[in-house]
Amino acid sequence: MLPSYGIGPHTCDGAIVYNKGEDSTREELEMAQEFDLRSWIREQPHKGYAASLDDDDHFVLETDFATAAINFYDMAPDPEIVELHIEEKATGEAKFFLHFHPVDRSHSIQLFHEMVQALLSIQGHHRTEVLLCCTAGMTTSFFAERLNQVAEAMGLDWTFSAVSVTEAYEHGRDKAAILIAPQIGYQAERVQQVMGDVPVLKIPTATFAAYDAAGCLEWVREELAVREREAARQTTEETDLQANNDGRILVVAAHAASGTVTIHHRVYDHGVVAAEGRVIKRRLTLADITDVIDTRLCSCRAGGKVDAVGVALPGAMRGGYVHIKKTREVDLTDGTDGFVMGDYFSERYDVPVLLCNNANAAALGWHVAHPEYQDVTFYSQATGWAMGGQGHVVAGRLVEGAHGNAGEIRLIVNRFSFSNPLHYNAFDPADVLEVVGQVLAMDCATYDPEVIALRCDLLPDMEEVAGELAKYVDRDQQPKLVHVCDYDEHILVGMLARCRQKLWA
Fold this sequence. Notes:
There is one protein chain. This protein is α/β, with parallel strands linked by helices. Among the domains are: 37-123, no CATH class; 128-233, Rossmann fold; 365-503, 2-Layer Sandwich (Nucleotidyltransferase, domain 5), CATH 3.30.420.40. The protein contains 14 helices and 25 strands.
């Protein structure tokens, strides 16, 4: 049975409740009336983009490569909601997406400028970009020049570039295809495993040896067309990882990887997904989290009150504190010393807000989906990040530690001994494998889990990871290793389960 919340604070392991009441809503409405975001947008100079106005609630900013939409939605009696959305023209891919209440002038202006910067940064992607790879990139550089000449002569909007195969993992993720030279054809399967949906093709030996650029270009076009037809026929089956729950809960999962921040939010109504959405940005801030909560709580009121909010973030959690170093990608403070996020949320919302480390939530979520395992380690190594994070479930219970540092491998990784200590490349699978192997050995020595779920795009081959771990732990004593792709899903389900454990146990 759900608790009823009255005026005054209620504390439960970092989840604190205050009844915000109608006065705060009235104050927000007055603030919104003082700052007219529509008028402010109209007054902005159009530098680098064209602007059009469909009506007072719909603005469009456009460049040759992308389109940004600014949409206003009336949520009376609550403050209106603004939606910012950027879509790349060539791919139709969302590059920026969020909602917020325009009640704070400086925050609203900051988000507008972030959107414009993201819009203007999308350049040159109108071409079909293909990456060529060989051992060092030198041989394929000459072939890439020939391919560019042929593409231009044929009037095709294609461009080719060349790198070494080790650089493909960093530079190939936004390409239409990656071409592997015949002399390293044996690496094509490995590169394909890491790159996921990006097609990896082995250049025919005869074509490459003859420097037949025209023949190669036609071959690539046909191969991509075939793959596109095959992809259109395929259907995917979504895994149902819902956890039983007695309330209506908003869960928020935030994480960053390879220059992009994702905030996935979902409303569960008695364990069933009632609504969800996603924010896509380049930087994670406290305001982004409150924007998600504010707008989702506002939109949920028509369908029923949210009983609790669960927020999964990077960093160590203890007593309402979120300990994570401020970086260019992440800033989860309000600009003051000694900031306590738990207290901040307690003063802002009239429902309990429970904080949890995102890797901890993922570990719990994986355990919920696989209850046959009682001792689980979940290791997340984001692409492009030197430090990963972990969560541990021991005897069916999440272990956070006395100071919230369980799983904070940042405390120890710099003490490890690497083959190349002065140059750890977070985009190089060989470097990442060495780090992951040592971290997993530490896990075996401390937790000795039954299974380790590894989220690492650069290391999809668990047999390779097991081989690296064998340097420290005999194979017959290693845990089961499982590669995980759906990180968000496990965080969301784990956060839901955590709310149920902490608030309604």
